[in-house]
Amino acid sequence: ELAAERAAHEAQDVELRSAKARHHAAAADVEAMRAVEHEMKAQFRLFTERESSLEAENQRFAAEAAAAETERLATERTVRTARGEADASAAQRQQLESRSAG
Length: 102
Description:
Blueprint: H1 2-101
């Protein structure tokens, strides 16, 4: 009877050690998953910051492109005005020359 109790007690000890080992392994898995979660959150933060930076840069480029287009159009207007003035001046000179020649 004593041997049977010892055997049962030993079996319970083995089962307890096995349960503790499983618990320890599960706790280690949970800790590893927390580390992975932490790393993923850090990478997501970096991604979000990079995305915000790229969006700001994209908006800056769009504003610069709009400013360049505005400047180009203003330059074209200035060139057309100058060309018109030059043509008018040349026409006046021709009229004056033809009057003085005539």
